[in-house]
Design a protein that fits this description.
Layout: E1 3-7, E2 18-24, E3 32-37, E4 50-55, E5 61-65, H1 79-90, E6 101-104, H2 109-114, E7 119-125, H3 126-138, E8 145-148, H4 152-157, E9 165-168, E10 175-180, E11 183-188, H5 191-194, E12 205-207, H6 212-219, E13 224-225, H7 228-236, H8 251-268, H9 273-315, H10 325-340, H11 348-356, E14 367-371, E15 374-378, H12 384-396, E16 399-404, E17 407-412
Parallel strand pairs: 1-4, 4-8, 9-12, 12-13
Antiparallel strand pairs: 1-2, 2-3, 5-7, 6-7, 9-10, 10-11, 14-15, 15-17, 16-17
């Protein structure tokens, strides 16, 4: 998976603000680097499946504290409570109001809190960080992880980098960065700055090529070269993720981002072009098949309607205008039965004949009302079982039964 690493400048984002960037295909070696404005950064969909933002050392302050017992150092379980605890513990140490700042805990914070050990809290300006994340999101480079350029615990646990001093470009010609178990110090490059570093003053020196000669002149010692792109890659390899609390990348959000990334890759990358054409062809075949099937079904329905109209015209030639053949045929048949005296299922005689076969031996009927093909019998005091048996019997004959108190309503309309 290709990863795009973007170093966030100290200034707020603007149309002309440029960012240093690097990208890697395996997470270990650099595949390229450069400097460009946000809009001109490499396309995150065409080049990178993952975007990592690096917060520079000058934008972060580090504070070590011990969380109270019972506090879960997990920014996703109860973020409001944990943030309130951090705000209360750090309020006296901060130069700005806590609501204007963003807090982040290390990945090992939960284990250290259970062991009652101190943890580091990274603090940066909230509005600045949000502005850069929104700018990258608007440029279609959404950030999936935020890492610090340097972190105390990361450097302290790597013995090969213990007491290492880093000389990088800064506001002055160069700046000295000293990660240690006591935090991360950022000082102007000078001999006097070494006096503040105690035991780290004699550690290894690593400098960017652009300030290497200045560092050797000031410190009177040889330095090892490291490009800023390599430094960003090292930062991206850490376990840190400053996207916590209101910036937390939950499992749901990560899944959505991965799905969106995969969808964008499917839509735009050349290697998926054959699959895209195959999908278009498959959809076209299905559409043609559905239209053909619908046309055939419509033709069958039309032929059935024509057959009904022909049957109605042949049987009842007096019907000149055909609107609804089944209804008109039923009406004409009823009229013919009435004219010839033939009993139909809607006649009282037919209903009573079917009813007598399902009633008890001596039914107590006090009144019979018949109107419009429905008969109501009053005075029947049927039990639940007798009513169910009668309803089942009449339903097989095509009648619907409705029980109302001591009345029984029967009308044609059941499904035999």
């Amino acid at each position: 998976m290709t990863t795009l690493i973007v170093s966030l400048p100290i200034s707020l984002p603007g149309t002309a603000t440029e960012c240093d960037y690097a990208f890697t295909q395996d997470g270990v070696s650099l595949a390229g680097h450069g400097r460009a404005s946000v809009a001109l950064l490499p396309d995150a969909h065409a080049l990178a499946n993952d975007v990592v933002a690096v917060v520079p050392a000058r934008a972060l302050s580090w504070h070590q504290l011990t969380l109270p017992k019972g506090t879960r150092a997990d920014s996703t379980s109860n973020p409001q409570r944990l943030r309130a605890v951090l705000s209360g513990l750090l309020e006296e140490r901060l130069l700005d109001e806590p609501e204007h700042l963003h807090f982040a805990l290390p990945p090992q914070a939960l284990a250290r809190a259970h062991a009652n050990e101190p943890v580091w809290v990274a603090v940066c300006n909230r509005a600045w960080l949000h502005a850069w994340l929104h700018a990258l999101e608007a440029a279609k480079r959404p950030v999936s992880r935020i890492v610090p350029e340097y972190a105390p615990e990361i450097q302290a646990t790597q013995t090969s980098q213990a007491n290492t001093l880093y000389i990088t470009e800064g506001l002055l010609p160069a700046q000295l960065v000293a990660p240690s178990p006591q935090g991360v110090m950022v000082l102007p490059l000078s001999r006097a700055a070494l006096a503040l570093l105690d035991g780290t003053a004699h550690g290894a020196l690593v400098a960017e090529p652009s300030v290497a000669s200045v560092a050797e002149q000031v410190l009177q010692r040889p330095v090892n070269l490291q490009s800023n792109a390599q430094r960003y890659l090292t930062a991206a390899q850490s376990d840190w993720n400053l996207a916590q609390f209101d910036l937390a990348n939950t499992g749901h959000a990560r899944t959505l981002k991965r799905l969106n990334s995969a969808w964008q890759s499917f839509l735009h990358t050349p290697q998926w072009r054959p699959a895209r054409w195959a999908c278009v062809l498959l959809v076209s075949i299905h559409l043609i098949g559905l239209n053909t099937w619908a046309w055939r079904e419509r033709a069958v329905i039309d032929s059935q309607r024509a057959a009904l109209r022909a049957t109605l015209s042949d049987t009842f030639p007096e019907v000149k205008v055909i609107v609804d053949a089944p209804v008109q045929m039923a009406r004409a048949l009823t009229q013919l039965q009435q004219a010839t005296g033939v009993t139909s299922g809607q006649d009282l005689e037919a209903m009573l004949g079917h009813l007598s076969a399902g009633l008890p031996a001596q039914p107590s009927i006090t009144a019979i009302d018949f109107s419009e093909g429905a008969v109501r019998l009053k005075g029947l005091n049927l039990s639940v079982d007798e009513a169910a048996t009668l309803s089942a019997h009449l339903k097989t004959q095509g009648y619907a039964v409705q029980t109302e108190a001591d009345s029984l309503l029967i009308r044609q309309g059941g499904q035999p």
